[in-house]
Amino acid sequence: xxxxxxxxxxxxxxxxxxxxxxxxxxxxxxxxxxxxxxxxxxxxxxxxxxxxxxxxxxxxxxxxxxxxxxxxxxxxxxxxxxxxxxxxxxxxxxxxxxxxxxxxxxxxxxxxxxxxxxxxxxxxxxxxxxxxxxxxxxxxxxxxxxxxxxxxxxxxxxxxxxxxxxxxxxxxxxxxxxxxxxxxxxxxxxxxxxxxxxxxxxxxxxxxxxxxxxxxxxxxxxxxxxxxxxxxxxxxxxxxxxxxxxxxxxxxxxxxxxxxxxxxxxxxxxxxxxx
Length: 275
Ligand SMILES: [Zn+2]
Ligand SMILES: [Zn+2]
Fold this sequence. Notes:
It is a single chain. The protein is α/β, with parallel strands linked by helices. The protein has one domain: TIM Barrel, CATH 3.20.20.140. The protein is built from eight helices and eleven strands. A hairpin with a 2-residue loop joins strand 5 and strand 6. The site of one zinc ion (ZN) has 5 residues, from loops.
């Protein structure tokens, strides 16, 4: 059986560019055995990518409808991507993809994956220009969120690297950054969540490799953590972006198996060999 699947996909209902219908059709044509939609849950703070409350029933109905269309051929799960600053009734969904897109403090927020200039200002005003301290805080917030909320999957762990393409925001090898990342991984592990190996940034923002970086993925493997692939797809043609390299990427971190969303007659998440 094929193990092609993604635990992370968006639709044009919010910030994606393809409909659930087209997304599912493309996944099916590419031999997917399962997939999950994960629209961004409504948030406590105003953003530009989250689902508005009034769209929730539309989203749920759309995904359930496509799931029915593919019944017996490709299992489609209803998920939700819930940010640390979002709110959502998790019982409405098959699973929750937990993620952290922000730095926040004193009622103020700054997107970790948004405008690099805004993040630089945040660093300079709140951390005296100390990028390492800022990223350590990002990981601290991520770990705390995982511990408190216990999502089923934790998404794009080191997302903040997206804003550090030129390398002048922070030093990713700063021991304080790595230590804080490891600490957050401990909390994610304790939460029981799978860790997403996210290939979406490669297709969408030219990242050279998936999230998370090998240093964190290797650590996650040593800790006994479990991995699951997500293409964080916003455009149907990118539903399998990075899939040609992701198995090898996980193997190089030490993994011999990964997990995916279950097909018909299987559990919600199932393990498969990386061979
Ligand atoms: Zn996300
Ligand atoms: Zn996403």
